[in-house]
Amino acid sequence: MEQTLKFKTNINCSGCIAKVQPRLDAEKDIISWTVDTDNPEKILTVETALSKEDIISLIQMAGFKIETV
Known about the structure:
- The chain is of the alpha+beta class.
- The protein has one domain: Alpha-Beta Plaits, CATH 3.30.70.
- Helix content is 33%, strand content 33%.
- The chain is built from two helices and four strands, in the order E-H-E-E-H-E.
- It has a four-stranded antiparallel sheet with strand order 2-3-1-4, with helices on one face.
- A hairpin with a 6-residue loop joins strand 2 (30-36) and strand 3.
- The longest helix is centred in the first third of the chain and has 13 residues, at 14-26.
- It is globular and about 30 Å long.
- The protein starts with a strand and ends with a strand.
């Protein structure tokens, strides 16, 4: 079941986005994702069939902090 999940992260620049992009783009159950780097909490929005835990794991494996909003 698809859902839209939001997370606070420390993904704060295009270089950071480039580090998480391969992991997120490779996941077939992610329909779309964006990081609002203008937001002080660097909000990652993911439209996906994955669980919150799966997304958290993907971002942590890329070396970033992440928590649910």
